[in-house]
Amino acid sequence: MEIIQSVLNGILLGGLYSGDLVIVSTFLCMIIAAQVTGSLLLALVITICFMAVIGFLLQNFLINKVLDKGDEPPLLVTFGVSIFLSNVLLLLFGADARSIQSPITSSNVISSNLVSVSAVYLLNFVVAVLVIGALHYVMKYTYFGRSIRATSNDVTAAELMGVNTKRIYSYTMCLAMASAAIAGLLVGMTFVFYPSTGTQYLIIAFGVVVIGGMGSLLGTLVGGVILGLAQLLGAYFFGAGYQLLAGYIVLLIILTIKPEGLLSTAARK
Protein backbone atom coordinates (compact mmCIF):
# COMPACT_ATOMS: atom_id res chain seq x y z
CA MET A 1 0.00 0.00 0.00
CA GLU A 2 3.02 2.30 0.19
CA ILE A 3 2.82 2.93 -3.55
CA ILE A 4 -0.72 4.30 -3.09
CA GLN A 5 0.64 6.71 -0.53
CA SER A 6 3.44 7.76 -2.91
CA VAL A 7 0.96 8.43 -5.73
CA LEU A 8 -1.29 10.47 -3.42
CA ASN A 9 1.62 12.51 -2.07
CA GLY A 10 2.89 13.07 -5.60
CA ILE A 11 -0.43 14.49 -6.78
CA LEU A 12 -0.71 16.81 -3.78
CA LEU A 13 2.93 17.89 -4.07
CA GLY A 14 2.24 18.70 -7.70
CA GLY A 15 -0.21 21.37 -6.59
CA LEU A 16 2.62 23.24 -4.91
CA TYR A 17 5.00 22.79 -7.85
CA SER A 18 2.52 24.45 -10.19
CA GLY A 19 2.81 27.69 -8.33
CA ASP A 20 5.11 30.58 -8.98
CA LEU A 21 7.77 30.34 -6.19
CA VAL A 22 9.91 33.16 -4.78
CA ILE A 23 11.90 32.36 -1.68
CA VAL A 24 11.99 36.03 -0.72
CA SER A 25 8.28 35.80 0.03
CA THR A 26 8.91 32.86 2.34
CA PHE A 27 11.35 34.85 4.44
CA LEU A 28 9.06 37.89 4.45
CA CYS A 29 6.07 35.84 5.64
CA MET A 30 8.20 34.25 8.35
CA ILE A 31 9.57 37.55 9.66
CA ILE A 32 6.29 39.49 9.45
CA ALA A 33 4.35 36.71 11.21
CA ALA A 34 6.97 36.32 13.93
CA GLN A 35 7.83 39.98 14.54
CA VAL A 36 4.78 42.02 13.52
CA THR A 37 1.39 40.34 13.14
CA GLY A 38 1.57 37.00 14.94
CA SER A 39 -0.76 35.70 12.22
CA LEU A 40 0.35 33.86 9.09
CA LEU A 41 -2.77 34.92 7.17
CA LEU A 42 -2.25 38.61 7.91
CA ALA A 43 1.45 38.22 7.19
CA LEU A 44 0.54 36.75 3.81
CA VAL A 45 -1.70 39.72 2.95
CA ILE A 46 1.10 42.16 3.82
CA THR A 47 3.63 40.08 1.88
CA ILE A 48 1.38 39.99 -1.20
CA CYS A 49 1.09 43.79 -1.17
CA PHE A 50 4.80 44.26 -0.58
CA MET A 51 5.85 41.82 -3.29
CA ALA A 52 3.40 43.34 -5.78
CA VAL A 53 4.94 46.77 -5.21
CA ILE A 54 8.48 45.39 -5.53
CA GLY A 55 7.49 43.58 -8.72
CA PHE A 56 6.01 46.76 -10.22
CA LEU A 57 9.14 48.77 -9.39
CA LEU A 58 11.50 46.12 -10.77
CA GLN A 59 9.55 45.75 -13.99
CA ASN A 60 8.79 49.43 -14.54
CA PHE A 61 12.17 50.91 -13.67
CA LEU A 62 14.57 48.10 -14.53
CA ILE A 63 13.34 45.34 -16.82
CA ASN A 64 11.17 47.54 -19.06
CA LYS A 65 14.25 49.66 -19.80
CA VAL A 66 15.91 46.75 -21.61
CA LEU A 67 12.92 45.02 -23.22
CA ASP A 68 13.56 46.73 -26.57
CA LYS A 69 17.20 45.67 -26.67
CA GLY A 70 16.69 41.99 -27.54
CA ASP A 71 16.06 38.74 -25.66
CA GLU A 72 19.33 38.55 -23.71
CA PRO A 73 19.35 41.83 -21.70
CA PRO A 74 16.11 41.11 -19.77
CA LEU A 75 17.39 37.62 -18.92
CA LEU A 76 20.70 39.03 -17.72
CA VAL A 77 18.96 41.69 -15.64
CA THR A 78 16.65 39.22 -13.94
CA PHE A 79 19.55 36.83 -13.37
CA GLY A 80 21.48 39.64 -11.72
CA VAL A 81 18.50 40.52 -9.51
CA SER A 82 18.23 36.85 -8.51
CA ILE A 83 21.88 36.72 -7.45
CA PHE A 84 21.52 40.00 -5.56
CA LEU A 85 18.44 38.86 -3.63
CA SER A 86 19.99 35.49 -2.77
CA ASN A 87 23.07 37.17 -1.32
CA VAL A 88 21.01 39.75 0.59
CA LEU A 89 19.01 36.93 2.19
CA LEU A 90 22.23 35.10 3.03
CA LEU A 91 23.66 38.26 4.63
CA LEU A 92 20.51 38.96 6.66
CA PHE A 93 19.51 35.45 7.73
CA GLY A 94 22.62 33.32 7.42
CA ALA A 95 22.83 29.87 5.84
CA ASP A 96 20.86 27.98 8.50
CA ALA A 97 17.79 25.94 7.57
CA ARG A 98 14.47 27.52 8.55
CA SER A 99 10.81 26.61 8.42
CA ILE A 100 7.45 28.26 9.07
CA GLN A 101 5.58 26.56 11.89
CA SER A 102 1.82 26.14 11.83
CA PRO A 103 -0.62 23.72 13.49
CA ILE A 104 -1.39 22.09 10.13
CA THR A 105 2.22 21.30 9.27
CA SER A 106 2.26 18.22 11.49
CA SER A 107 -1.37 17.12 11.19
CA ASN A 108 -3.23 14.79 8.82
CA VAL A 109 -6.69 15.28 7.36
CA ILE A 110 -7.01 11.53 6.85
CA SER A 111 -5.01 8.93 8.74
CA SER A 112 -5.59 5.22 8.24
CA ASN A 113 -3.75 1.97 7.67
CA LEU A 114 -4.13 2.46 3.91
CA VAL A 115 -3.20 6.10 3.36
CA SER A 116 -2.67 9.34 5.20
CA VAL A 117 -3.35 12.78 3.76
CA SER A 118 -1.13 15.55 5.07
CA ALA A 119 -3.08 18.71 5.88
CA VAL A 120 -0.39 20.99 4.51
CA TYR A 121 -0.03 18.97 1.27
CA LEU A 122 -3.79 19.11 0.78
CA LEU A 123 -3.76 22.85 1.47
CA ASN A 124 -1.02 23.28 -1.13
CA PHE A 125 -3.06 21.52 -3.77
CA VAL A 126 -6.33 23.30 -3.00
CA VAL A 127 -4.68 26.73 -2.99
CA ALA A 128 -2.88 25.94 -6.26
CA VAL A 129 -6.18 24.98 -7.93
CA LEU A 130 -7.90 28.11 -6.60
CA VAL A 131 -5.06 30.41 -7.72
CA ILE A 132 -4.90 28.86 -11.18
CA GLY A 133 -8.69 29.06 -11.46
CA ALA A 134 -8.63 32.75 -10.51
CA LEU A 135 -5.84 33.45 -13.00
CA HIS A 136 -7.76 31.60 -15.72
CA TYR A 137 -10.80 33.80 -15.08
CA VAL A 138 -8.71 36.98 -15.18
CA MET A 139 -6.93 35.96 -18.37
CA LYS A 140 -10.06 34.89 -20.23
CA TYR A 141 -12.84 37.19 -19.03
CA THR A 142 -11.28 40.56 -18.14
CA TYR A 143 -9.87 43.40 -20.21
CA PHE A 144 -6.62 43.14 -18.26
CA GLY A 145 -6.32 39.45 -19.12
CA ARG A 146 -7.06 40.06 -22.79
CA SER A 147 -4.44 42.81 -22.81
CA ILE A 148 -1.89 40.39 -21.36
CA ARG A 149 -2.69 37.80 -24.02
CA ALA A 150 -2.58 40.39 -26.79
CA THR A 151 0.78 41.71 -25.60
CA SER A 152 2.14 38.18 -25.35
CA ASN A 153 0.99 37.26 -28.86
CA ASP A 154 2.01 40.42 -30.74
CA VAL A 155 3.39 43.54 -29.03
CA THR A 156 3.09 45.76 -32.10
CA ALA A 157 -0.52 44.78 -32.80
CA ALA A 158 -1.44 45.28 -29.15
CA GLU A 159 0.06 48.78 -29.16
CA LEU A 160 -1.81 49.63 -32.37
CA MET A 161 -5.02 48.66 -30.57
CA GLY A 162 -4.23 51.12 -27.76
CA VAL A 163 -2.68 48.76 -25.21
CA ASN A 164 0.13 50.28 -23.16
CA THR A 165 2.35 47.21 -23.29
CA LYS A 166 4.99 48.51 -20.87
CA ARG A 167 2.29 49.13 -18.28
CA ILE A 168 0.80 45.69 -18.94
CA TYR A 169 4.23 44.14 -18.30
CA SER A 170 4.42 45.96 -14.96
CA TYR A 171 0.91 44.98 -13.86
CA THR A 172 1.53 41.39 -14.93
CA MET A 173 4.65 41.34 -12.79
CA CYS A 174 2.53 42.51 -9.84
CA LEU A 175 0.17 39.59 -10.45
CA ALA A 176 3.06 37.15 -10.70
CA MET A 177 4.64 38.43 -7.50
CA ALA A 178 1.34 38.13 -5.65
CA SER A 179 1.14 34.49 -6.75
CA ALA A 180 4.76 34.03 -5.68
CA ALA A 181 3.93 35.37 -2.22
CA ILE A 182 1.21 32.76 -1.79
CA ALA A 183 3.53 30.01 -3.00
CA GLY A 184 6.30 31.30 -0.74
CA LEU A 185 4.21 30.82 2.39
CA LEU A 186 3.22 27.31 1.32
CA VAL A 187 6.85 26.40 0.63
CA GLY A 188 7.89 27.60 4.07
CA MET A 189 5.14 25.59 5.74
CA THR A 190 5.93 22.43 3.76
CA PHE A 191 9.74 22.29 3.57
CA VAL A 192 12.81 23.67 5.25
CA PHE A 193 14.36 26.50 3.24
CA TYR A 194 17.61 28.43 2.87
CA PRO A 195 18.52 31.73 1.16
CA SER A 196 19.75 29.71 -1.82
CA THR A 197 16.60 27.57 -2.10
CA GLY A 198 15.10 29.85 -4.74
CA THR A 199 17.29 28.39 -7.49
CA GLN A 200 16.07 24.88 -6.69
CA TYR A 201 12.42 25.87 -7.04
CA LEU A 202 13.15 27.92 -10.15
CA ILE A 203 14.43 24.78 -11.86
CA ILE A 204 11.38 22.82 -10.68
CA ALA A 205 9.03 25.58 -11.90
CA PHE A 206 10.81 25.56 -15.28
CA GLY A 207 10.22 21.82 -15.54
CA VAL A 208 6.55 22.25 -14.63
CA VAL A 209 6.00 24.90 -17.32
CA VAL A 210 7.86 22.88 -19.96
CA ILE A 211 5.86 19.73 -19.22
CA GLY A 212 2.50 21.52 -19.13
CA GLY A 213 3.19 23.78 -22.12
CA MET A 214 3.87 27.49 -22.43
CA GLY A 215 0.81 29.68 -22.13
CA SER A 216 -1.48 27.09 -20.52
CA LEU A 217 -2.63 27.60 -16.93
CA LEU A 218 -4.21 24.15 -16.85
CA GLY A 219 -0.95 22.80 -18.25
CA THR A 220 0.87 24.32 -15.30
CA LEU A 221 -1.26 22.34 -12.88
CA VAL A 222 -0.98 19.16 -14.96
CA GLY A 223 2.79 19.62 -15.26
CA GLY A 224 3.09 20.08 -11.51
CA VAL A 225 1.12 16.91 -10.81
CA ILE A 226 3.17 14.88 -13.31
CA LEU A 227 6.47 16.14 -11.93
CA GLY A 228 5.34 15.55 -8.35
CA LEU A 229 4.23 12.01 -9.19
CA ALA A 230 7.49 11.27 -11.01
CA GLN A 231 9.58 12.43 -8.07
CA LEU A 232 7.60 10.63 -5.37
CA LEU A 233 7.39 7.39 -7.35
CA GLY A 234 11.07 7.63 -8.21
CA ALA A 235 11.86 7.93 -4.51
CA TYR A 236 9.55 4.98 -3.74
CA PHE A 237 11.06 2.59 -6.28
CA PHE A 238 14.72 3.64 -6.31
CA GLY A 239 15.31 5.61 -3.11
CA ALA A 240 15.22 9.26 -2.04
CA GLY A 241 18.48 10.03 -3.85
CA TYR A 242 16.77 9.39 -7.21
CA GLN A 243 13.80 11.69 -6.63
CA LEU A 244 15.01 14.63 -8.71
CA LEU A 245 16.54 12.34 -11.33
CA ALA A 246 13.17 10.64 -11.87
CA GLY A 247 11.56 14.02 -12.44
CA TYR A 248 14.20 15.04 -15.00
CA ILE A 249 13.86 11.72 -16.84
CA VAL A 250 10.10 12.25 -17.19
CA LEU A 251 10.78 15.81 -18.36
CA LEU A 252 13.15 14.55 -21.07
CA ILE A 253 10.69 11.87 -22.18
CA ILE A 254 7.86 14.39 -22.55
CA LEU A 255 10.13 16.82 -24.42
CA THR A 256 11.09 14.03 -26.80
CA ILE A 257 7.49 13.01 -27.48
CA LYS A 258 5.86 16.45 -27.38
CA PRO A 259 8.46 19.26 -27.40
CA GLU A 260 5.88 22.06 -27.11
CA GLY A 261 4.45 20.62 -23.88
CA LEU A 262 1.30 18.65 -23.19
CA LEU A 263 -1.20 21.51 -23.27
CA SER A 264 0.71 24.30 -25.00
CA THR A 265 -1.36 27.08 -26.56
CA ALA A 266 1.51 28.06 -28.86
CA ALA A 267 1.53 26.83 -32.40
CA ARG A 268 4.42 24.53 -33.15
CA LYS A 269 6.73 25.81 -35.88
Describe this entry's structure for a reader.
The chain is mainly α and 269 residues long. Strands 1-2 form a two-stranded antiparallel sheet. Helix 5 (119-141) packs antiparallel against helix 10 (217-238) and helix 6 (143-153) packs across helix 8 (165-190). It has one domain. It is built from eleven helices and two strands. The longest helix has 26 residues, at 165-190.
Largest sheet: 2 strands, antiparallel
Total strand segments? 2
N→C terminal distance: 45 Å
What percentage of the residues does DSSP assign to strands (E)? Answer: under 5%
Any idea what the radius of gyration is? 19 Å
The tally of structural domains comes to 1
Report the structural category.
mainly alpha
Write the layout of secondary structure elements.
Elements: H1 2-17, H2 23-37, H3 40-63, H4 72-93, E1 108-111, E2 116-118, H5 119-141, H6 143-153, H7 155-160, H8 165-190, H9 197-212, H10 217-238, H11 243-257
Antiparallel strand pairs: 1-2
Helix pairs in contact: 1-5, 1-10, 2-3, 2-8, 3-8, 5-6, 5-8, 5-10, 6-8, 9-10, 10-11
What's a concise summary of this model?
It contains eleven helices and two strands, in the order ααααββααααααα. With 269 residues, it is an all-alpha fold. The chain has one domain.
